[in-house]
Write a structure and sequence with these properties.
homodimer; about 240 residues; alpha/beta; Rossmann fold; 7-stranded parallel β-sheet; 9 helices; 7 strands; about 15% strand
């Protein structure tokens, strides 16, 4: 069977690297799978896993700042350009690694990957590829959160061009768990200038991303890992990759 | 009349700072308005305008890296925390500045502001506040671009909680202008796993953000500035701020 590629994507601080590491270890331990770790984040200092491919062997943000005399923003934009131009080379090398499951950890700032090279990497890496879009679960508790979670999930899926699973991570930190479930299940109704939006839009979004398809995970406790694997597997079957 | 606050938001490299500067100068020159410039980006090195308020007087990414021994990602996350905690203080100081129009330039990486402090700043700054969400116009020409532009515009508007104008910037760099207009006007139809999405979703999104409401601008040539001002003014009237 062809390799399974899992691309972990999400905003800064949503727990991508921790998830990459914990879920990889879970796949090894629970399912005896052969995993490979890919780090595509040129801005990280430490990683909770030992990468089999590491973008930092090519360039790092700190190095770009030092060597090219750039500020943090300049270095980040330069990293985007480098990322974009080097994706074919990276994909080739990742493909050479083999492995049963490859876990791809992406840049701390989601924009870097989503708008520069991410969709191309998804296309070029061989095997069946799923995007796991991590959001901080507390986002749901904030204003228009449940609508936003769906809009962002759809946006990322469309942009990446591959099956995308929306994941509310750091669920272990949520105390108001029932409130989160309630907010996810019903469309958010707003007031003021946004009220016309939230009614029918949320209703429609529920058709595309029903609450049951939004996973809740904790990279710390391992909550939701079994469901995450099942959903990945189910997606793969639905796409005909396992027939 | 109360102050008008314009918050310029967008992904790295979409032209926020240049737009802040050019549109501010246009408002001064064409409409004789009194403008104030607010820089909320702790990661920039140079600015094309002279800021009246500058977050870099409080902290910068480079300084956080040096002083706290952080890597680029760590410094960015620390900046998010600082931003979030200091927004009330910043808003107070910005309110004290007065001014007829205040142009607020935001962090290079959109996520920093959108998920950390942005919505609170929109609430705390006094006067009528509009978010101008800049995207690189070439996004429309890419896969599922026209649907994505609407999804992102809606997401940002919901998150910021204020009227949000979607803007395709750097329109001067687009050669296939007719193609862009055509793609904006009709829903995008995809193939494969995403085909079920794009049909009815795009149709619905057109109701919320019709093509006419998506501005096309160039901060270099000034194209679209008049339309941008008219739309801001119209939004203000619709919200009852000018009655």
């Amino acid at each position: 069977m062809s390799a399974l590629n899992l691309i972990f994507l999400g905003t800064a601080g949503c727990g991508k690297s921790t998830m990459t590491s914990s879920f990889g270890k879970w796949l090894e331990k629970e399912l005896g799978m052969k995993t490979l770790y890919v780090n595509l984040d040129p801005g990280c200092e430490q990683l909770p896993y030992q990468p089999d491919f590491d973008v930092r062997n090519y360039f790092t943000i700190t190095e770009l700042m030092r060597r090219e005399g750039l500020g943090p923003n300049g270095a980040m934009i330069r990293a985007c350009e480098l990322m974009e131009s080097k994706i074919p080379e990276f994909a080739l090398e990742i493909n050479r690694l083999g492995g049963e499951v490859r876990l791809l950890d992406t840049p701390g700032q989601m924009e870097v990957f989503l708008f520069h090279g991410g969709p191309e990497m998804a296309k070029l890496v061989e095997g069946f590829t799923v995007c796991l879009f991590l959001m901080d679960a507390k986002l749901v508790l904030q204003s228009f959160g449940s609508t936003l979670v769906r809009l962002l999930g759809l946006s990322v899926g469309l942009r990446m061009g591959i099956p995308t699973v929306s994941i509310l991570n750091k669920i272990d930190l949520i105390e108001r768990r029932e409130e989160l479930e309630r907010l996810l299940a019903v469309p958010a109704f707003g007031t003021g200038v946004l009220s016309d939006l939230t009614g029918s839009l949320s209703q429609l979004l529920l058709q595309f991303l029903p609450p049951a398809r939004i996973l809740k995970t904790s990279a710390i406790s391992g909550e939701g890992f079994k469901e995450m694997y099942d959903l990945i597997h189910e997606t793969r079957c639905a796409c005909g990759d396992l027939t």
